[in-house]
Design a protein that fits this description.
Shape: globular
CATH topology of the largest domain: Multidrug-efflux Transporter 1 Regulator Bmrr, Chain A
Strand content: 25-35%
Radius of gyration: 21 Å
Order of helices and strands: HEEEEHEEEEEHEEE
Helix content: 25-40%
Number of strands: 12
CATH architecture of the largest domain: Alpha-Beta Barrel
Number of domains: 2
Structural class: alpha+beta
Length: about 220
């Protein structure tokens, strides 16, 4: 009986050590993907779109100007409410059309100050990739250049995290004279679900125009 118990303990110790090996390998792989941009670190899950500006430091608010880029978009109006159905529709689109995955994923909010996500977009690597038009519930369009008041956030992609960033950006806009809000917010998620929640990086942004300019219609 003692021999059986000793053998069982040895097997458990060996099994525990074997489990450590893939966990350590995964951790090393994750660390090797850490990059810095704009004074903040993030896990490089996928390439950024061509011409994408530097990322915004966590907890800070800065202006970021974006070039024209091509995006595949799904909204509630196209019949895909909630995060998972939107993501699935977009993933099917890029898989079927052999479009490389990029980051970030753009989560949009229809109403100013709202925490309810009503749209999602996958961004193309270059504006020349693929045709514009519709593909089922997915709409492929070119997004014109635009400026955003942006803040970096760290943690899970949740309503609470969006609200944290939104309040920070709204307070910044209200406290300076040079820029004014020009539409509802968006939440850019740069990491996949495989990245631990506490390492995920995102940006909460509000489109802005110079205070002397006319707002977009």
């Amino acid at each position: 009986m003692k021999s059986t118990h000793a053998t069982s303990r040895r097997i458990r110790r060996i099994a525990a050590r074997l489990l450590v090996i893939p966990a350590a390998a995964a951790a090393l792989l994750l660390v090797s993907c850490v990059r810095t941009s704009g004074g903040t670190w993030y896990v490089d899950s996928a390439p950024l779109p061509e011409g994408w500006p530097e990322l915004t430091p966590v907890g800070e608010v800065e202006i970021r100007e974006y070039p024209t880029y091509r995006a595949a978009v799904v909204t509630e109006k196209e019949g895909r409410a909630a995060t998972t159905p939107m993501f699935r529709a977009l993933f099917q689109h890029i898989s079927t059309n052999d479009i490389p995955m990029t980051s970030p994923v753009d989560m949009s909010y229809e109403d100013v100050g709202s925490d309810r996500m009503t749209g999602m977009a996958f961004l193309y690597r270059t504006p020349e990739l693929g045709p514009i038009g519709t593909d089922g519930v997915v709409r492929v369009e070119d997004v014109p250049p635009r400026a955003y008041a942006s803040t970096g956030v760290r943690g899970s992609y949740s309503e609470a995290r969006h609200r944290e960033g939104l309040e920070r950006v709204e307070a910044w806009i209200a406290g300076q004279p040079n820029w004014k809000a020009d539409g509802p917010s968006r939440y850019l998620g740069y990491n996949s679900p495989f990245v631990p929640w506490f390492m995920r990086y995102g940006e909460v942004q509000i489109p802005v125009v110079p205070a002397s300019a006319t707002k977009h219609p």
